[in-house]
Write a structure and sequence with these properties.
Layout: H1 3-21, H2 27-34, H3 38-50, E1 54-59, E2 62-67, H4 73-82, H5 85-97, E3 99-101, H6 102-109, H7 113-125, E4 129-132, E5 134-135, E6 138-140, E7 147-149, E8 158-161, H8 164-174, H9 181-193, H10 206-221
Antiparallel strand pairs: 1-2, 3-8, 4-8, 5-6, 6-7
Helix pairs in contact: 1-3, 5-10, 6-7
């Protein structure tokens, strides 16, 4: 994605956080206090409201904005996974490594394969991850990066986040109520400054991904025995 997209993500996060700390302000109040032009602010507010992160309520001639406290059934299922430590760590791993097998996750998180498999099944049911196939050594998926090189190893199953941007939005929305707040904040920053640009071509090869991405970022995320 372009630099402008990264800046938009950062700006929306700032707006969301400001509203969460200053509930009930109307458009012009927000514009003045945040020093954001009204037209630009309206664009971002519309996006945040469309995603269900904020709500607006009419108050006379004003629309006042609040952080959304409404949680749909799908979001409840995702939130249940967020609140399970191992499931949350699996989700954070996907933001770094993009595509993982059960064996990968078991190794990275130092968890028994049966435990990883249990959480993967729950995450599929919650609509968090998808199982993808490998065709001629390439994974094809709908979100960036749309293609990733990975040789097929016997009948291993490969998983990816179904909707990374939705997961990113929900991490922001619920991060104050999650365990491992520092790790969640780390991933949010990573999305803004790194993943939002797509995984660079030079590390889309499987071996290079492990060598470069894990080495660079997982010093913070992974347990000590797996750190390089």
């Amino acid at each position: 994605m372009e630099k402008n997209t990264i800046l938009e993500l950062r700006r929306r996060r700032e707006i969301y956080e400001f509203i969460s700390q200053n509930s009930g302000l109307h458009l012009h109040d927000l514009s003045r206090k945040m020093d954001i032009p009204v037209t630009t602010l309206k664009y971002h507010l519309h996006s945040l409201e469309k995603k269900g992160l904020i709500i607006s309520r009419e108050d006379g001639k004003y629309n006042r904005f609040f952080v959304s406290l409404e949680i749909g059934e799908k979001e409840k299922k995702i939130l249940n996974c967020f609140r399970t430590r191992t499931a949350l760590h699996i989700i954070l791993c996907f933001f770094i490594i993009v595509q993982c097998s059960q064996k990968d996750l078991s190794k990275y998180l130092e968890k028994h394969p049966t435990t990883i498999n249990f959480h993967l099944r729950k995450m599929i049911q919650a609509g968090i991850i998808d199982q993808v196939s490998i065709e001629d050594g390439v994974i094809h998926k709908e979100t960036l990066p749309s293609t990733i090189k990975r040789p097929q190893v016997s009948s291993e199953k490969i998983y990816v986040l179904k909707d990374p941007w939705m997961m990113y939005d929900l991490l922001i929305k619920h991060r104050t109520n999650l365990s491992d707040k520092e790790r969640v904040e780390f991933i949010i920053e990573l999305v803004e400054f790194y993943i939002s640009g797509g995984v660079p071509k030079q590390i889309q090869n499987r071996e290079d991904t492990i060598e470069s991405v894990v080495n660079a970022f997982c010093q913070f995320l992974l347990p000590p025995s797996f750190r390089f």
